[in-house]
Design brief:
The structure holds two protein chains of two kinds.
Chain A lengths: L9 H9 L7 H12 L1 H28 L2 H17 L5 E2 L10 E2 L5 H26 L1 H10 L1 E4 L7 E4 L7 H12 L8 H6 L3 H6 L6
Antiparallel strand pairs in A: 1-2, 3-4
Helix pairs in contact in A: 1-3, 2-3
Chain B lengths: L3 H14 L5 H14 L3 H27 L2 H17 L10 H23 L6 H4 L16 H19 L3 H12 L4 H8 L3 H22 L1
Helix pairs in contact in B: 2-3, 3-4, 3-5, 3-8, 4-5, 5-9, 7-10, 8-10, 9-10
Classes of the chains: A mainly alpha, B mainly alpha.
Chain lengths: 210, 216
């Protein structure tokens, strides 16, 4: 656009009327130069400027009508109250009303942090203890207890292993009983065996004396 | 011809000189120093002065962006509380006004999002509530009553057209025209690139021009 020949486009004029632009832009410089010389463009800009100023005044007035001095003062008080209450405990209000003092919620910050640290420590201790129970030496012994090993007297040389009833089959169980019954020379049973009459001894007695 | 171009130049010149040393920037620096020294009570007392300085401008921007007085009230409160909580992050070499504007725009955006979530099933309040009702105030000089009526009719239409702009266009336009911010300052305040700001301004102005063209 040259300063003398072409007029300032209407979009540009509207922008000049409504929007504050940086004066160092080339286009603005040219437009301003043209406007200083062209009555038609200047008149158009003047009309648009009236609209722009009217809108601006009206917009300000409309906002100010909603926010009068009293409302702004109330808003200022609320802002300062909010700032004063930052970090303070929240009060619990009972409904329906209960006599006695109000309970306050725990203040955020130190105490809450302490609780979370304690919870984390408890969790870690629990995990470590669990690992220790799994790998500790006494754990092996306790696991061996789960499978009862009955060692027969050394003289017999027979080793019998009794597994818990829940895991042992009936067949196995009967085999174990049978094996135990055959230990006639078991050291611990020898005295008792001597006192106990056998089937052959009983046959020697008459039926009435049995 | 109107003295508008000269006014524009003067306004820009004075703004660039006072960009950092506004009264609000000075008070903000004081508050920041008090907070850094651990004197929060004194900082809070001083903060009242800062609120008084920026409050009216803040509610004007928030109101025209959100188009709801209650939301604007809340957004401005939130913005000031955020300013106080983050005052130590404010850098003294920057304009406090622009920093505050940025926080305010973000607070408005939060309100807008939460309102959109809450009222998704409702039609926009812009469509049904906004009347563009003028407040009794004569613009500028003392023109004739006929001219006043004509102007009132015009700006009423423009007011409605501005209110009907998309959110970002309305924000950019409001900051530019109502708060007299340059594109660079709006870019800093909104996080949009200067080119995006210019595009939104251009679109907003073109729509407004169409309204004005119909009126002429």
């Amino acid at each position: 656009m040259s300063a003398r020949t072409s007029h300032v486009p209407i979009d540009r004029l509207t922008a000049l009327a409504f929007v504050v632009r940086a004066p160092d832009a080339d286009q603005d410089e040219q437009a301003l130069q043209h406007l200083a010389e062209c009555e038609r463009c200047a008149a158009q800009l003047a009309r648009l400027t009236v609209d722009a100023d009217a809108w601006r005044d009206a917009a300000i007035a409309e906002a100010d009508a909603h926010f009068d001095d009293a409302r702004l003062e109330a808003q200022r008080t609320r802002i300062l109250d909010r700032l004063a209450n930052i970090g303070h405990a929240a009060r619990v209000l009972y409904f329906p009303h209960r006599t006695g003092r109000d309970v306050t919620m725990p203040v955020a910050g130190g105490s809450r942090r302490w609780i979370s640290v304690a919870a984390a420590a408890g969790l870690i201790i629990g995990l470590v203890a669990g690992q220790l129970l799994r790998f500790a030496p006494w754990d092996g012994a306790s696991r061996r207890d789960a499978t009862l090993t009955v060692q027969a007297p050394r003289q017999t040389g027979i080793v019998s292993t009794v597994t818990p009833a829940s895991t042992m089959s009936d067949e196995q169980f009967l085999d174990e009983i049978e094996a135990a019954l055959q230990l006639r020379r078991a050291h611990s049973l020898r005295a008792l065996d001597a006192l106990t009459p056998t089937a052959g001894d009983l046959q020697d007695f008459p039926r009435g004396q049995r | 011809m109107s003295g508008r171009p000269i006014e524009v130049e003067q306004r820009n010149a004075s703004r660039s000189a006072d960009a950092v040393s506004t009264p609000a920037s000075a008070v903000a620096s004081e508050i920041k120093a008090l907070v850094s020294a651990g004197e929060r009570e004194a900082a809070r007392d001083r903060f009242g002065a800062l609120v008084t300085l920026l409050q009216r401008r803040g509610v004007r921007i928030a109101y025209h962006y959100l188009r709801d007085p209650a939301d604007a009230d809340e957004a401005v409160q939130d913005a000031f509380v955020k300013v106080f909580l983050h005052i130590e992050q404010y850098r003294d070499e920057l304009s406090f006004d622009v920093w505050f504007m940025r926080i305010l725009v973000n607070a408005c955006l939060d309100r807008l999002k939460s309102r959109t979530r809450q009222q998704r099933w409702l039609s926009s309040p812009l469509d049904q509530n906004y009347e563009g009702r003028p407040v009794e105030q004569a613009p500028g000089a003392e023109p004739s009553s006929e001219h006043k009526l004509l102007v009132r009719e015009r700006w009423s239409q423009v007011l409605e057209a501005v209110a009907a702009l998309p959110d970002r266009q309305r924000l950019v336009f409001t900051l530019s025209h109502l708060d007299e911010r340059t594109a660079a300052e709006i870019s800093e305040a909104t996080g949009m690139s200067p080119a995006t700001v210019r595009v939104h301004l251009f679109r907003a102005i073109r729509k407004l021009r169409a309204v004005l063209g119909d009126l002429q």
